[in-house]
Amino acid sequence: MLTELTDQTFRHEVLEADKPVLVEFWAQWCGPCHMLAPVLAEIATERAGQLAVYKINADENSRYARDYQVMALPTMLVFRDGRPVHALVGARPKARLLAELDAVLAG
After folding, report:
1. Which of 2, 14, 30, 52 is catalytic?
2. Residue 30 annotated among the catalytic residues of the structure
3. Cα angle at 63 between 60 and 65, to 5 degrees?
């Protein structure tokens, strides 16, 4: 289970984080978002020391979805030092997602 962010908790948990953060923007009606949820939960557990993983409901908390111009769901943004450094749009298998994350985090 991933920790759910709100517009009120986003700044502290993501923008002020001391390690990289992956945020999934999702919505209840989004089928691919539900398919991605267990994959992200596994990654959150496996990478707990090096990457924080959260989700935020873009329908209920639209401020940051609007600020970062999230146009499709699911969209995952990787943040480093309070700034978005990479966007991943759409669901993907765990191996592909990990490969993409590793490439971003190594850079």
Report:
1. 30
2. yes
3. 85
